[in-house]
Write a structure and sequence with these properties.
Blueprint (H helix, E strand, L loop, with lengths): L3 E3 L9 E3 L2 E3 L5 H10 L7 E3 L6 H16 L3 H7 L12 H20 L3 H24 L13 H12 L3 E2 L1 E6 L3 E6 L8 E6 L7 H4 L4 H4 L7 H12 L8 H6 L12 H6 L4 H20 L2 H5 L11 H14 E5 L5 E5 L20 E2 L4 E5 L19 H7 L12 E4 L16 E4 L16 H11 L10 H25 L12 H42 L1
Antiparallel strand pairs: 1-3, 2-4, 5-8, 6-7, 8-12, 9-10, 11-12, 13-14
Helix pairs in contact: 2-4, 2-5, 4-5, 9-14, 17-18
GO molecular function: protein-lysine N-methyltransferase activity
Protein name: SET domain-containing protein
Keywords: Methyltransferase, S-adenosyl-L-methionine, Transferase
């Protein structure tokens, strides 16, 4: 098949063959293919027989190894995909649940056309995969505490509006301690069940702008994006008492508390972090965007843009709404549109989400569905995966730091290192993250990213055998680790001393800023610790070689 690397197909004999696909259009196709070869994976697929010992476990294991690589993203490849020594464990919760569901989908497709002889074999694989998904879900279940005295009248009205408009809703909205409002499963939901299904008539899309009187003014603005048009439409529609979406707007908070609303104390707290620059740039961008539009729109078209609806504060509110609640949806015409999805906005983000595959309108039903990739028990909070975002991004545009170890909390590096022979890596940029996430802390690895270490080694001696225990290489290892210690020691100094806010009740934004800054300290501290441990290990190896040589 053109453009696709095929990993087999079904055959009609006692031996069964299941296939997975790695698309050549994948941005990291070559790297993934190389990694599969390093791990000894068969590009023809996975054969299995029911007569083989432990055939179910072995078949699922082999399929998962392929699926994990297929679903690795750039960060996962950078830290875990650069050599064949990485253990065959999952590299992130996101990757694992996608891999499990990918293999389940392949088995389900095979069942549709399987011969009677093979249905039992495939069903056995399916049962094992469902069991694995349940085990994974149970292992990563997040306990919650509901706030009983919270008034959910606006949220209930929104759900009633949804049901009235033919939405299928298996969720309720509740206030959750430490998280605010969230969606709770009203039934036991299994893999593939639909937690929420909304007809497209309930979705806020750019078509609403084109149906309004705003378009006659906005279409004259050259280069105005659909996002900006929708933002302006939202600012006015919020106050429309006869709006189709009144229940939705009534359910929205008065403030969103994202990084875009950080006050001066929180900004000062972020001194020494990249998040400070990120938030300041975002604020400056919004201010410039607002000044380009107002007050001219209000002055020239006060009937369409009433000044009281288009203040700076209202503009920031609308921006925070769209940044934190919008989704890009693919419609039946193939076009991707930014949209607001009522009710779905109450699905909170998690590093262990139940819903990972969404964002495409079902042509048959003309609706948007949110199917589960792992089970969610009745009374459990149902989570959505917002994307592969760092905590700095989540703070700036969503207003929270996720629970648990976020594999996307990376610190980008700007190393201007040239090699003597002009060789170049497949990585044009480099990064680090907490070394506690690494599976390999042995010599030549230290819990640090292999591409970064190889870059620094090659700058010193591009012809050396990097991972050979010879004195020349070990001396280079010490130099590399010393350089990294110096670099990150400076970063730690820039963060300043650990700050303990002495106020009894620090504001929400200061709390969030302190949480982020302490996270940065934790990451840098882990790198310094790994460098120090690595230096001790290398020094010990040099001592052993010296004894042998003497």
């Amino acid at each position: 098949m053109d453009g696709i690397e095929e990993f087999g197909s079904m055959v009609e004999d006692e031996e069964c063959l299941l296939s997975l696909e790695l698309l050549e259009s994948d941005a990291h196709y070559q790297l993934k293919r190389k990694l599969m070869k390093l791990k000894g994976l068969d590009f023809m697929g996975v054969y299995f027989k029911s007569s083989s010992p432990n055939w179910r476990d072995e078949t699922v294991k082999k399929l998962l190894r392929i699926a994990r690589i297929i679903h690795m993203d750039e960060v996962e490849l950078y830290f875990d995909g650069n050599d064949g020594s990485t253990p065959d464990e999952y590299c992130s919760p996101r990757n694992e649940i996608k891999a499990l569901n990918e293999v389940l989908s392949v088995v389900d497709d095979a069942l549709k056309s399987a011969s009677l002889m093979k249905i039992g074999m495939l069903q056995g694989l399916r049962d094992l995969l469902i069991c694995r998904i349940h085990e994974f879900a149970e292992k990563n279940r997040q306990e919650i505490v509901l706030i009983d005295n919270y008034n959910c009248s606006k949220e209930k009205a929104l759900l009633q509006w949804g049901v009235k408009n033919d939405a299928t809703i298996k969720l309720m909205i509740a206030n959750i301690e430490g998280a605010g409002r969230g969606a709770i499963a009203t039934d036991d939901l299994n893999v593939g069940d639909i937690a929420l299904e909304l007809p497209i008539s309930m979705i806020i899309t750019e078509e609403l702008v084109y149906e309004s009187d705003m378009i006659q003014v906005l279409e004259k603005f050259e280069g105005m994006s659909a996002e900006t048009m929708l933002l302006l439409w939202t600012m006015r529609e919020k106050y429309n008492k006869h709006s189709t979406f009144k229940s939705y707007f009534d359910s929205l908070p008065e403030v969103f508390n994202t990084g875009l609303s950080f006050g001066i104390d929180a900004i000062l707290t972020l001194d020494g972090t990249l998040l400070l620059e990120e938030i300041m740039q975002a604020k400056e961008h919004l201010r410039a965007q607002y000044d380009d539009l107002f007050p001219s729109l209000c002055n020239n078209h006060p009937d369409i843009f009433p000044p009281q609806y288009f203040t700076w504060e209202q503009f920031v509110w609308a921006c925070e709404l769209w940044y934190s609640n919008s989704m890009r949806i693919k419609f039946s015409d193939g076009k991707l549109q930014p949209c607001l999805i009522p009710i779905a906005g109450f699905l909170n983000h998690s590093l262990h989400p139940h819903i990972t595959h969404y964002g495409k309108v079902d042509i048959a039903t003309n609706s948007l569905k949110f199917p589960l990739s792992k089970p969610c028990c009745k009374g459990e909070q149902c989570y959505l995966g917002y994307g592969n975002f760092s905590s700095s991004h989540l703070i700036t545009f969503y207003g929270f730091v996720p629970q648990g170890d976020n594999p996307y909390d990376v610190i980008p590096l700007d190393f201007n290192v040239g090699t003597e022979d002009g060789t170049s890596s497949c990585w044009s940029s480099h990064m680090v993250r907490g070394t506690w996430l690494s599976k390999n802390h042995n010599i030549f690895y230290y819990g640090l990213p292999p591409p970064l270490l190889d870059l620094l080694r090659s700058a010193r001696n591009p012809s050396s055998l990097y991972k050979s225990l010879i004195p020349e290489n070990l001396e280079i290892e010490l130099e590399v680790l010393e350089d990294l210690s110096s670099t990150f020691g400076g970063m730690m100094e820039n963060l300043g001393e650990i700050e303990l806010d002495i106020r009894e009740s620090p504001s929400w934004d200061v709390k969030l800023a302190l949480e982020y800054k302490n996270l940065q300290r934790k990451i840098i501290s882990s790198i310094l610790t790994s460098c120090q441990a690595g230096q001790r290990t290398v020094t010990n190896e040099l001592s052993k070689l010296a004894i042998i040589g003497s």
